[in-house]
Amino acid sequence: MIRYEKYSNQYTDRIDCPGTEKHYRLTRADQWCIMIEKFLPLVSPIQQMAVYEDDVWVITYPKCGTTWTQEMVWLLNNGLDYARAGKLTLEERFPFLELSGALSLMDGDSVGRVQDLPRPRHIKCHLPVMLLPDAIRTVRPKIIYVSRNPKDAATSFYHHYRNIVGYDGPREHFFDAFLNDSLIYAPFSEHVRSYWEWSKQPAGSNCLFLTYEQMKRDLRAVIGRVSSFLGKRYTEREVDELEKHLSVESMRNNKSCNMDDLLEWARNTTHSEERKQLSKTNFQFIRSGTVGSYRHDMDDDYIQRFEEYERAATEGTDFDFFF
User: Fold this and answer.
1) SUPFAM superfamilies recorded for this chain (predicted)?
2) Among the options 23, 126, 159, 271, which is catalytic?
3) What pTM, to 2 d.p., does this model score?
4) Which is higher by pLDDT, 59 or 317?
């Protein structure tokens, strides 16, 4: 049974904004996570949701290469059908399960939309293991989890908060909230470790664990691993074409993936009047697409604090954020 209680501290108080108001701490046995009030009505529908063996799930902590991975996975699992992919947005092809519970001002029934998808379903979510459907362990659909080093994940999430969620505060307050496990979907370290441990269990062969750093270092090798995981085979030429399609520049210019509709929604919904008066932002949902971009946003003190956080997160495991 999942229990919840209002959660407030100096870190949540400083990052509360139109898109993520009223934080709650959810607990299940010895596990816990932070979500917002808007998510609470989705707890039971997600727990009780039907899961099918031919489902394909892409799960990440936010801003860890989700969109990039979704596009790769959908194309690999659909015969590299670029024409169909170009006609439907990624949200239509690979919808975000808890979207209507992840942003305070987002309307709609994202869970119902996923439930009604024709099979095989492609499902995106950011949920920790404790909030997944109960049936997912027994039905064992294919799950692809992507991690990212905490410094880059936090930096990218900060820019997301500013440009999508409506946060106007200093980056230092956001980084403090991340380091103190006071953001939506926190704790980051447990989120990653739980899926890593799942993928290493004898019964975890349905969970493929990847890292953003692997994808940046050798995307071709990752395409091969994902293809094998999905039971697909493609020629060298076909992989060449997919690799080009998945480049950062190509993804930014791909209207089915670049989330322009979400950016427009944010400008009209979560941005403060002061922000609206500023010159039009050049923010793109698919931002730098690099490893190490945190160096532009963190001073030496925060870099050191995040490195201490990384050491604590990986202590006692054979996991490394950069492998």
Assistant:
1) P-loop containing nucleoside triphosphate hydrolases
2) 126
3) 0.92
4) 59
